[in-house]
Amino acid sequence: MPLWLREHRWHQTPAAVFLSLPLRGARATPDSIFCSERYLKVSIPPFLFEAILYAPIDDTNSTAKIGNGNIFFTLYKKEPGLWDSLTLENADKEKLQYLRENAVLKAQQKAKEETEAKKATKEEHKKYALEATMKLEEAERKRIEDLKEKERQKVTEELELWKNQQNDADKYKNIQKEGELHQEIGQLKERKSEKMTKTRIPNEGTSKTRPKPTKGHGSCSIFSPNVKEEQLPAPRSAATIKVNFTPRVFPTALRESRVAEEEEWLHKQAEARRTISADLSELEDLKEDEKNPDWLKDKGNKMFAMGNYLAAVNAYNLAVRLNNKLPLLYLNRAACHLKLRNLHKAIEDSSKALELLTPPVPDNEEARVKAYVRRGTAFCQLELYTEGLQDYEAALKIDPKNKNIEKDAEKIRHLIQGTMQGS
Questions:
Q1: Are 230 and 192 a contacting pair, CB within 8 Å?
Q2: Distance from chain centroid for Cα 11
């Protein structure tokens, strides 16, 4: 049974009621106090204070302070005036029960409304934050698109300027060639006129008697009017001789390379570029350029450089789902798994990259070296030093001048020797 607190002091003004309630050594907290328009309750086990107020109060602005073994209430009246007593007197039990229950229901309803108001405010803030984030992302995307458009326009203008310069240079060359051609024709005409003049004027030292023309078929005098003018050949037209060389993708000379293996490698790379799976549900919200495995690979490389290895792995994962024939995707993802200590996944991706980097040609030497080194590193971190040393030695066969790989291989040999001596 609770102990009712009957001792209290109160005084009033026309606007407020001031109530002091002793605690008798009990410790009160704000949760111990319940106050509504007509009902006041203080529950501090085993003590209990309950009062049905004489008139309604403003429970929102009313205050309660705990200190010095008392609770001080400041209750503001809704209607100014003096009360005859603190509590409602001469009220039957049914009315008191009704007022008590009504006060509790109003308090619950008010708490429910406040909770819903807080929830609505939180949803509004969340919605506002989402809208602000979407606006920022849209502005950033628009800025990037504007930069791309400006860069495209700049490249287009430079290309047009280069074309105009080439056309002007071609026109200048044609005019220069035409001038040289006219000059050559003029020189030929001058030579022809000089030769004709020398033919018509007789030499002074020659005999006055002219030789008789020899009669016969097909014979004629050089002074005969029937002699036709000397026919000169037309000047040769200018032309450009184009020389086509055999296209070579690989840096080695054709006589020193393995043509069959290189052609097979190029064919595999071309097939891998053409193989793109575009039926994934994740691609619905992406742009066309974002569905490109190369674009995703570059995105993963940027994330790796920033140290965000999980984001890089996600980018490589989507790129692999788009195209699972590109060895660099597995090779880069293996590097991320090494950073994240996912050693078994690093070994799996490195092995897959080596499987796709066949046949071995000069164009994929660097990628094969990285694949062997990353798989060997994962083996060594798993304390499988023998398998790791095999991969490092395979990398050294491809790139024997790499001093870093040689030092790492030597360290692994010392570790293997130490392990064998310790056992």
A1: yes
A2: 72
Nearest to 52 by CA among 10, 90, 79: 90
* Structural domain total, the chain: 3
Asked whether residue 201 is assigned to any structural domain, the reply reads no
HEC string of 379-400 equals HHHCCCHHHHHHHHHHHHHHCC
Both tokens assigned to 302: 């940027």
Q: Are residues 70 and 126 in the same domain?
A: no
* Nearest one of 39, 38, 63 to 50, comparing CA atoms: 39
Cα 274 from Cα 97, distance rounded (Å): 82
Decide which of 138, 167, 189 is a domain's last residue.
Answer: 189
275 found inside a domain: no
CA distances from 24 to 32, 34, 104, 158 (A): 15, 19, 27, 92
pLDDT tens-digit readout, 23-41 = 777 788 888 888 888 788 8
Last residue of a domain, one of 35, 53, 88: 88
Tell whether 243 is covered by a domain. no
Tell me the per-residue pLDDT of 83-119, one tens digit each, with 9 for 90 and over. Answer: 888 887 776 777 777 777 888 888 888 888 889 899 9
Which of 200-214, 226-240, 248-262, 401-415: highest mean pLDDT?
A: 401-415
Give the mean model confidence (pLDDT) for residues 308-330: 91
Q: Residue 68 belongs to a domain with what CATH number?
A: 2.60.40.790
What is the average pLDDT across 126-151? 91
3-state secondary structure of 44: strand
Residue 100: which domain range? 91-189
Higher pLDDT, 199 or 17: 17
- CB neighbour list of residue 264: distance below 8 Å, 6 or more residues apart: 359
In the predicted model, what is the mean pLDDT of residues 218-228?
A: 48
